Amino acid sequence: MSEPAAATLYAVVSGDRLKLLMERTGTGDAVTSRELAEAAGVAHGTIGALMSGAQRVVPEHKAKAIAARLGVDLLVLFIPMERAGRTLVPAQQVVA
């Protein structure tokens, strides 16, 4: 029997971009980290860690939920990680 495929992981582009998108979501409204966490079904600490840079990576379902609540495309906020070896895709130059 083969092993189940590992879930795709996504790295946040930058904590600053996350903060910016929280200040002005796709609907134009602001959302707090607690509101975002609750709406996306993730721990409040996860949102804080993504904003501060203490955590860079989340599973695909969490990345999709966060992006959906912010009203943006997944790839506006997250970069998919390579599957082989789980190495982080090099960060792109980001202008927040």
Task: Give an overview of the whole structure.
The chain has 96 residues and is mostly helical. It has helices at residues 15-23, 33-40, 44-52, 60-70, 74-77; strands at residues 9-12, 57-59, 78-80. The radius of gyration is 14 Å and the shape is globular. It starts with 8 loop residues before the first strand and ends in a 16-residue tail after the last strand.
Topology of helices and strands:
Elements: E1 9-12, H1 15-23, H2 33-40, H3 44-52, E2 57-59, H4 60-70, H5 74-77, E3 78-80
Antiparallel strand pairs: 1-2, 1-3
Helix pairs in contact: 2-3, 2-4
Keywords:
single chain; mainly alpha; 3 strands; 96 residues
Distance between the termini: 46 Å
Q: Which bin fits the share of residues in helices?
A: 40-55%
Mean pLDDT across all residues, rounded?
A: 84
- Sequence of secondary-structure elements: EHHHEHHE
Q: Estimate what percentage of residues fall within beta strands.
A: 5-15%
Largest sheet: 3 strands, antiparallel
Q: Which consecutive residue ranges, at least 5 long each, have pLDDT under 50?
A: 89-96
What class do helices, strands and sheet pairing give?
Answer: mainly alpha
State the shape: globular
User: How many extended strands?
Assistant: 3
Radius of gyration: 14 Å
Count of discrete alpha- or pi-helical segments spanning 4 or more residues: 5
